[in-house]
Amino acid sequence: MDLGLKGRRAIVSAASKGLGRACAFSLAGEGVDLVLNARSADALEATAEEIRSAHGVNVTTVAADFNSDEGRAEILAKAGETDILVTNPGVRQIPGEYEDWTRADWDEWFNVHFFSSLEMITSVLPGMRARKFGRVVNISVSFIKFPQPHFAHSHSARLALSGAIASLVKETVRDNVTINTVCPGFFDTDALHTNLHNHARRGNTTYEAIVENRIQSVPAGRFADPKECGDLVTYLCSAQAGFIVGQNIINDGGVYQGLF
């Protein structure tokens, strides 16, 4: 199926590795020109060169902090007119104890998991609406559907972003501008394995035991390939997806047990 994306232009943040990288590759496979962002210049340029070689699309890199005002301004300045935005703060969630969190801690988590993406989204919406096409996909986590202990700081910020998106998109969809959120579960990325090593240390067990425990918790019986997230995001950016609006789409192999 032709997704109607050839020649479109996309910003993808946290694109040097993991889910952001998978989104970039999938969009490029549909002929989308890319503006890729990450903090590490070397890893980012390596990913960009792989994409150029594989798909022949134009790829611009912006090594900057997506979660800073200056970083977002630099991305927007280099991107110009943007048809697609994939927001991914690139900051993995870290468990903690609510008794230890100060107001400054809460503010920092809301900055990286709410305000940074929200401000990028609201920056690109006017141009998308004027051109009568726009697709925004926010990368979140499946746990916003069933928040976990020790993650109140991150899960609450991500929930706030989904709430803001649900309101905003009711204004933008009349101009063929959609905003949706993808909520991945256990994907085979560096971030997942870093978290699992940390869980093993905190639980006084082995990394292998933690991996086996997590896989057993997934009805699909495996960790997902990042490409499975990238391809879902790309479909949500397609011409055919204009009637999918404000959704929080779980992609977790059956872990979430709810119906809605």
UniProtKB/TrEMBL annotation:
<protein>
    <submittedName>
        <fullName>3-ketoacyl-ACP reductase</fullName>
        <ecNumber>1.1.1.100</ecNumber>
    </submittedName>
</protein>
<dbReference type="GO" id="GO:0004316">
    <property type="term" value="F:3-oxoacyl-[acyl-carrier-protein] reductase (NADPH) activity"/>
</dbReference>
<dbReference type="InterPro" id="IPR036291">
    <property type="entry name" value="NAD(P)-bd_dom_sf"/>
</dbReference>
<dbReference type="InterPro" id="IPR002347">
    <property type="entry name" value="SDR_fam"/>
</dbReference>
<dbReference type="InterPro" id="IPR050259">
    <property type="entry name" value="SDR"/>
</dbReference>
<comment type="similarity">
    <text>Belongs to the short-chain dehydrogenases/reductases (SDR) family.</text>
</comment>
<dbReference type="Pfam" id="PF13561">
    <property type="entry name" value="adh_short_C2"/>
</dbReference>
<keyword id="KW-0560">Oxidoreductase</keyword>
<keyword id="KW-0614">Plasmid</keyword>
